Amino acid sequence: MKVVVLSGGVGGARFAQGLIDVIERSDLTVVGNVGDDVEVLGLHVSPDLDSILYALAGLNDDERGWGRANETWRALETVRELGGESWFQLGDLDLGLHLVRSQALRAGEPLSAVTERIAHAFGIETRVVPATDDRLRTWIGTPAGEFPFQEWFVARGHRDEVDSVRFEGNEDARPAPGVLEAIAEAELLLVAPSNPYVSIAPILAVAAIRDALEARRVPAVAVSPLIGGRAVKGPADRMLERLAGGTSPAHVASRYPGLIDAIVVDEADADDLDGLGDVRPIVTRTLMSDPSARKGLAEAALGAVAV
Ligand code: GDP
Ligand code: CA
Question: Which of 83, 110, 164, 267 has the fewest beta carbons closer than 10 A?
Answer without folding.
Answer: 83
